Amino acid sequence: MNKIRIVVADDNIDFADMLAEYLNSQPEFEVIGIANDGNEAYDLIKELIPDVAIIDVVMPHIDGLGVLEKLMFTNIHPKPIYIMLSSIGHDSTTQKSFILGADYYMAKPIDVSIVAKRIKLLFNSISKYSKSDNTGNNHDNEVIISEYIHDLGITLYPKGYLYVRDAIDMTIRDMNIIDSITKNVYPELAKRYKTMPSSVERSIRKAISEAWENGNAKMINLFKYKPSNSEFVAKVADELRYILYKK
After folding, report:
1. Contact (CB, 8 A) for 71 and 45
2. Residue range 162-178, pLDDT digits in tens
């Protein structure tokens, strides 16, 4: 059986070593690298491409969110499962982690055996999802969508960014879904992120409005006038569908 290859990144050297030792004692895991700062974490993940990267939010040089942001625009295939650890319990930190591509968030202090259980659960569930995905390289698609909407002025941190990205991804997969954005897209995203459809709609509208009002040149050239949510998602999905399927 192939072992799950893991990189551990935590500035607490004792904790990182303890976690690595415990994971290595389990027959299904192999820790292939340990980093104690953000720069080292990014380099190790990029070079080794582990199955799972466990990343502490608070690290020197680049924090865990900064590592995720760099990885988001780095061509890594297949995309590792990113598990964030943090003693900071702010909702905004958790939200930013997910916006930047984290798959799971765990608050410290934490039992290393619980980390092992979460790795197995995430690895099994995400692997099954990836195998059933018929659109090709999902991480590459995500990177291309993220870069495109970032160039349009949709910034990384407001809630709307995540909803815009996923709405476009859904529309690329099924262009007919955008014909009923209120009935199909908003409820699905609300279910996915445990919020209300009206909150999804408002957040997307705010993200688009801010990009437009900031005078983003690419946005203005593409639309000529401020688009509605459905106009924005449909147009960008159409543009990106050609790019993605041309790859």
Report:
1. yes
2. 899 899 999 988 888 88
- Which two tokens mark 91? 């909702």
Pure H helices in the chain? 13-24, 38-48, 64-72, 91-99, 112-132, 138-151, 159-173, 186-193, 197-213, 217-223, 229-246
Q: Are 15 and 100 in the same domain?
A: yes
Q: Residue 20's closest CA among 37, 6, 1?
A: 6
- 86 φ/ψ sector (left φ>0, alpha ψ -120 to 50, else beta): beta
pLDDT, tens digit (0-9, with 9 covering 90-100), for 50-71: 999 999 999 999 999 999 989 9
d(CA 180, CA 202): 16
Q: What is the pLDDT of residue 140?
A: 62
CA distances from 192 to 30, 105, 199 (A): 31, 16, 13
Burial class (CB in 10 A: 0-12, 13-18, 19+), 102: buried
Range of the domain at 96: 4-132
Task: Say if residue 32 is in the same domain as residue 114.
Answer: yes
Q: How far apart are CA 219 and CA 199, in angstroms?
A: 23
The DSSP bridge pattern shows strands 104-107 and 81-86 to be parallel
As a whole number, mean pLDDT of residues 197-204 equals 94
Residues 105 and 87 in one domain: yes
